């Protein structure tokens, strides 16, 4: 298949695209014409066409006229899309790089983020010019440059997957295009505040449902029928009752079953994948495929005449076929046949209402058959669009980028109602282009007081009014004729000839012609419309019998789509306050008398033409509320041959697209115009005289100061009443470059200020936290000290005379590691060896031990969670050792601890299985208190502490005794003396504090 809208990076003498081969991109040829037609040295239609042809022959299919992109269908892949080219165009201005569809998409996206205004991309051109592919590449680009969070990826995937699904059901092979869109589509992508897609909405327009039942020779029905027949498995063929493709009357009349470049099997896989992505479950997919099969089989129903009654009727020729179709549709056989061969007529009102069944002739039955098939398919298509919208809808309203991909202008050998509607919407889109790029621009120069030489152009407003104006436009007269029971196509043609006999865009066809036709002189040329079928297609009637039949179906999908009532919003100018709608009215697109809602009474049925006109009006309202971007697609030849240029055909499209007039306006005009307020909001930070404020405060005065400071030549700009106009892009480049640099500087300033603030706040918070922590730890320590003092008092009060130092112990006294050995590496090694890897120092203290010879030895005790280690220190050695463990006493081996009643620092550790241990330390009170707490925790019982002035204990020499005696004085201010006496030890102690002494009030 020839690619639609396949495009390539273009080049010109002004191109700035990278040409390095390391990127993998095509080298840029700067010698082929100009990539912006504004740069043409000779301004004429011939030079314009010649430049397009020259570039097209070299595979350079993109050319621009300022912001308007011209795209020529190459009918082959050019290898200019993908990640490399997306990165090349991301964030670039259109003046910096050759024209490309990615450049248009990037410009729209940047405008959405920077200006916070809705954007729309209007893609127009003939059928086969490449509009659908262009819209795909726009979607691809936007999806690639936006965020990648899980929710964003889900939305992007659903939006992208809607394309193959809608193409399968809405596109078909025509004589002009193998993948022609047979419906219009306006895709709106909504973005969140950071510029990532968060949802969207699809609006579809006028599906060409007549294609379901009839195609021109050489064309195909919608792709989905061929996908289903080619891609279904044998089991699915049996389930859906599928026949060989040649046996379907709705498919075999055109004698075209394949299309170049289209793989129906692969397409069916893509369609099913897309269905799953947008939320269509397996059961709904099966129902859709059953209905598609039923539609194809409906075309095989034939009827025989039945003259047995008073009124000629008909009967179904193949009852088995009726049964198969009924099973697929989930309805009863007899009801299906009756709904096709007869209809119920209701007459009278109120109590006098009566109904009777009227037989249908063979011709009427065939008409009902085709109408039913078209209705089912059309409603399934509408349901698909609603399902896609449901999967991507977002409740909050945000800024959008709209992409309009609508059927191109069509001129066939036989043009009917569908071509009339298609060409009508193209006529209105052409009017938008003229209005915004030619008419409005020139009017703006006049309004703003800018020096300007007007450019003449062809305005097609009269042709638009011929079709849509009330009360005597073609659509209004068509609706009116549909109201009359005796109205027919010929009476409509006669009425059109009478009303528009002198209209410049309407012509009659001589009566000698074999067919009844009328001619409209469109912007793209004269089109002969065959009047036959206009009224029937406009009425779009489906008998109530067939509607009731569908709603009774056991298939939930079929019943739902026939019960669904679309809600069409009324366009009421009285409630529209935006300037966009005012422009709409002034341009002649709004019917100022059409303030009534859609008629729903029996006298004014809703016609296809009325619905379509309402949709077009709503579309125009949406487009006028957005900042537009244009892609004008050109079909280079009729034979779909790659890079083949038909000069006459291309020149005709250039002419009716108004490209030459657009070129004249662009060359004579200004490339940039903006209100003073928006201009200053974007650029005020780059001038010293305007940052952060400027004198006077007026935006126009600010613009004057800024341009004066930047030394931009006066000939490059003009000041209008409300806007500033800049002629060439170079000053904009200069300002944008300065703005980017300034934004970086300001961002750095903000960052540094914020970092300073954060760091200072962190510092102050840290200091505050440290104070709080210090106070809290102090409180915890004091509380623990109080608890330990209370515990200590409970141990000693009333049992032992107190030392003054013991009564005034500080909180530091209960830290316990008096020797500071807890973090000593050698100590850790010894404890790991003696007790295990988890051993830790809980208490360490120097002691004076009485040995077996009753001599005093300087030693130390280290207490862990479960042991008491008696160590002897020595000078540090090379291996780091500085003590040896003389003895280890386990808590479990400790029987009791004995102390005297007097004011001394001696205590005895009684170890029944070994020898006892007697020593003295000035940390006696803390040691005994902490040892008692550790012992109680480890042994789950209190430590036995006894008080006696005569303590018996056992040494290696045998049993001995320590006797404590109170004396009045001791030499050299000693608290006690210890002497050996008859194998015992006599300890003399001065009188201490009362055993009941307290140094503070005990608090818990």
Structural account:
Among the domains are: 672-766, Alpha-Beta Plaits; 797-990, Roll (PH-domain like). The chain is α+β, with helices and mostly antiparallel strands. The two termini are 92 Å apart. It contains 30 helices and 31 strands. The protein is elongated and about 160 Å long. Strand 6 and strand 7 form a beta hairpin. The strands form 8 sheets. The chain has an 8-stranded mixed sheet with strand order 23-22-21-20-26-25-24-27. A 7-stranded mixed sheet has the order 1-2-16-3-12-6-7, sandwiched between helices. A 4-stranded mixed sheet has the order 28-29-31-30, with no helix packed on it.
Strand content: 15-25%
Percent helix = 40-55%
Number of strands: 31
Please, what is the CATH homologous superfamily of the domain at 797-990? Pleckstrin-homology domain (PH domain)/Phosphotyrosine-binding domain (PTB)
Which spans of ≥5 residues are poorly predicted at pLDDT below 50?
A: 1-30, 568-603
Q: Under the CATH scheme, which architecture of the domain at 797-990 would be assigned? A: Roll
Q: How would you describe the shape? A: elongated
**Broad structural category:** alpha+beta
């Amino acid at each position: 298949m020839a690619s639609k809208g396949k495009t390539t990076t273009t080049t010109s003498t002004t191109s700035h695209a990278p040409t390095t081969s390391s990127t993998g991109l095509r080298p840029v040829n700067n010698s082929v014409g100009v990539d912006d037609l504004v740069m043409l040295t000779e301004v004429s239609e011939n030079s314009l066409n010649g430049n397009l042809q020259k570039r097209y022959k070299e595979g350079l299919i993109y050319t621009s006229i300022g912001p308007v992109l011209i795209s020529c269908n190459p009918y082959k892949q050019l290898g200019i899309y993908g990640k490399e080219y997306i990165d090349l165009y991301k964030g670039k201005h259109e003046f910096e790089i050759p024209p490309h569809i990615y450049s248009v998409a990037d410009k729209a996206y940047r405008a959405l983020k920077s200006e916070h205004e809705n954007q729309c991309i209007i893609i127009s051109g003939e059928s086969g010019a490449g509009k659908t592919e262009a819209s795909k590449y726009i979607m691809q680009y936007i999806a690639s440059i936006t965020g990648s969070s899980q929710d964003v990826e889900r939305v992007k995937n659903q939006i992208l997957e809607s394309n193959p699904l809608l193409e399968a059901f809405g596109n078909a092979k025509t004589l002009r295009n193998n993948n022609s869109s047979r419906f219009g589509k306006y895709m709106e992508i909504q973005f969140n505040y950071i510029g990532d897609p968060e949802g969207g909405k699809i609006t579809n327009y006028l599906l060409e449902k007549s294609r379901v039942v009839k195609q021109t020779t050489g064309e195909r029905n919608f792709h989905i029928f061929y996908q289903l027949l080619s891609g279904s498995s044998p089991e699915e063929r049996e389930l859906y009752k599928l026949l060989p493709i040649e046996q379907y009357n709705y498919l075999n009349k055109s004698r075209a079953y394949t299309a170049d470049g289209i793989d129906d099997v692969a397409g069916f896989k893509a369609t099913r994948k897309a269905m799953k992505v947008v939320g269509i479950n397996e059961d709904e997919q099966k129902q859709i495929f059953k209905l598609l099969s039923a539609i194809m089989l409906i075309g095989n129903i034939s009827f025989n005449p039945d003259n047995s009654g008073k009124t000629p009727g008909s009967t179904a020729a193949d009852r088995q076929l009726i049964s198969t179709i009924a099973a697929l549709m989930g309805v009863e056989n007899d009801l299906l046949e009756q709904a096709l061969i007869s209809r119920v007529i209701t007459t009278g009102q109120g109590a006098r209402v009566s109904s009777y069944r009227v037989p249908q002739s063979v011709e009427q039955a065939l008409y009902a058959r085709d109408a039913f098939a078209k209705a089912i398919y059309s409603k399934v298509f509408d349901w698909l669009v609603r399902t896609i919208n449901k999967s991507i809808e977002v409740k909050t309203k945000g800024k959008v980028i709209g992409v309009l991909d609508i059927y191109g202008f069509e001129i066939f050998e036989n043009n009917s109602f569908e071509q009339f509607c298609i060409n009508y919407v193209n006529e209105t889109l052409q009017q938008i282009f003229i209005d915004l790029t030619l008419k409005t621009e020139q009017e703006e120069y006049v309004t703003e007081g800018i020096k300007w030489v007007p450019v003449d152009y062809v305005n097609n407003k009269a042709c638009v009014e011929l079709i849509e104006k009330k009360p005597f436009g073609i659509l209004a007269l068509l609706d009116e004729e549909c109201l009359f029971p005796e109205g027919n196509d010929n009476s409509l043609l006669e009425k059109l000839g009478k009303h528009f006999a002198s209209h410049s865009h309407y012509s009659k066809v001589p009566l000698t012609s074999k067919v009844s036709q009328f001619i409209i002189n469109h912007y793209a040329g004269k089109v002969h419309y065959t009047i036959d079928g206009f009224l029937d297609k406009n009425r779009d009637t489906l008998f109530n019998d067939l509607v009731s039949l569908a709603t009774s179906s056991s298939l939930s999908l079929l019943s739902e789509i026939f019960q669904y009532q679309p809600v069409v919003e009324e366009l009421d100018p009285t409630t529209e306050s935006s300037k966009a709608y005012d422009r709409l009215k002034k341009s002649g697109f709004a019917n100022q008398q059409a303030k009534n809602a859609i008629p729903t009474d029996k006298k004014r049925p809703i016609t296809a033409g009325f619905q379509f006109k309402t949709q077009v009006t709503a579309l125009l309202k949406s487009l006028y509320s957005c900042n537009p971007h244009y892609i004008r697609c050109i079909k280079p030849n009729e034979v779909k041959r790659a890079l083949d240029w038909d000069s006459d055909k291309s020149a005709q499209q250039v002419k009716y697209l108004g490209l030459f007039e657009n070129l004249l306006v662009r060359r004579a005009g200004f490339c940039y115009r903006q209100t003073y307020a928006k201009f200053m909001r974007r650029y005020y930070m780059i001038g010293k005289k305007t940052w952060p404020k400027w004198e006077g405060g007026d935006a126009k005065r600010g613009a004057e100061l800024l341009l004066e400071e930047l030394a931009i030549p006066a000939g490059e700009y003009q000041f209008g009443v409300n806007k500033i106009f800049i002629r060439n892009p170079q000053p904009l480049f200069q300002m944008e470059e300065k703005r980017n640099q300034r934004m970086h500087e300001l961002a750095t300033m903000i960052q540094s200020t914020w970092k300073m603030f954060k760091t200072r706040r962190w510092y102050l918070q840290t200091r505050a936290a440290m104070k709080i922590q210090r106070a809290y730890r102090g409180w915890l320590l004091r509380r623990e000290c109080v608890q330990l003092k209370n515990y200590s008092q409970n141990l000693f009060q009333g049992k032992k005379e107190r030392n003054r130092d013991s009564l005034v112990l500080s909180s530091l006294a209960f830290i316990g590691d008096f020797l500071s050995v807890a973090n000593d590496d050698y100590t850790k090694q010894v404890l790991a060896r003696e007790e295990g890897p988890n051993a830790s120092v809980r208490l360490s203290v120097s002691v004076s031990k009485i040995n077996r010879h009753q001599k005093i030895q300087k030693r130390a005790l280290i207490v862990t969670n479960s042991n008491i280690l008696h160590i002897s220190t020595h000078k540090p050695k090379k291996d780091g050792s500085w003590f040896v463990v003389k003895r280890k006493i386990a808590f479990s081996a400790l029987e009791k601890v004995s102390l005297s009643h007097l004011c001394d620092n001696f205590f005895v550790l009684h170890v029944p299985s070994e020898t006892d241990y007697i020593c003295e330390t000035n940390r006696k009170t803390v040691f005994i208190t902490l040892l008692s707490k550790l012992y109680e925790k480890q042994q789950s019982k209190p430590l036995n502490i006894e008080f006696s002035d005569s303590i018996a204990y056992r040494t290696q020499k045998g049993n001995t005794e320590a006797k404590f005696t109170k004396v009045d004085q001791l030499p050299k201010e000693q608290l006690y003396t210890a002497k050996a006496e008859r194998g015992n030890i006599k300890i003399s102690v001065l009188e201490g504090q009362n055993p009941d002494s307290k140094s503070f009030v005990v608090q818990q």
